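TASK: fixed-backbone design
INPUT:
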């Protein structure tokens, strides 16, 4: 529902799910559901609340030891940090809306990037950029350790988008080339699934960088 533009109603349902899990004492998957809720909040412009919820999810990961969504949570923290600093929606979000307008199937609610595709943020925030980059690098390290290639791909895309448009990196061309190489390596690891949203976006991003 959030992906289809009914954000507030969708968030109500996710909150009900979180409340139901808490009420009956089920913790399995709790951090993952919190991540979905945090991402949904970011989708509708409540990035500060989304950051708080993702922070709770990361704390739950530490407490429970359930780390299946740990890399994605760190990626979401980076994206929401950028969103809170005033960075607008990404090219992938625009493409998704255009595809939905043409009657194509909506993307499954799994990811959301906030980098600016064609312009600098209206109010550059070097601290936010550095914090977001640290989150992305943490997520990549975790994904590689877990051999979670899909999560690694998604986070490397976030890193590439940030390095494309960040304002204060000491060696922006070198840093972007490094991220480009990372994206190329993880993309070419895949042998199937090239019709999925993440791999389609990765291919488009590689073409842009080339």
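OUTPUT:
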């Amino acid at each position: 529902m959030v992906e289809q533009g009914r954000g507030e109603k969708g968030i109500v349902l996710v909150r009900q799910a979180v409340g139901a899990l808490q009420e009956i004492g089920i913790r399995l998957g709790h951090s993952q559901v919190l991540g979905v809720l945090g991402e949904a909040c970011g989708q509708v412009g409540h990035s500060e609340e989304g950051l708080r919820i993702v922070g709770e999810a990361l704390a739950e990961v530490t407490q429970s030891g359930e780390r299946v969504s740990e890399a994605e949570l760190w990626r979401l923290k980076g994206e929401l940090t950028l969103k809170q600093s005033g960075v607008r929606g990404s090219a992938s979000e625009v493409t998704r809306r255009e595809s939905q307008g043409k009657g194509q199937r909506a993307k499954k609610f799994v990811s959301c990037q906030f980098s600016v595709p064609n312009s600098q943020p209206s109010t550059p925030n070097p601290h936010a950029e550095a914090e977001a980059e640290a989150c992305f690098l943490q997520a990549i390290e975790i994904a590689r350790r877990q051999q979670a290639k899909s999560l690694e791909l998604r986070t490397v895309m976030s890193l590439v988008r940030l390095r494309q448009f960040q304002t204060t990196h000491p060696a922006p061309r070198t840093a972007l080339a490094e991220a480009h190489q990372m994206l190329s390596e993880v993309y070419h690891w895949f042998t199937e699934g090239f019709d999925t949203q993440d791999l389609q976006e990765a291919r488009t991003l590689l073409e842009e960088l080339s």
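COMMENT: Confidence is low (pLDDT under 50) at residues 88-122.
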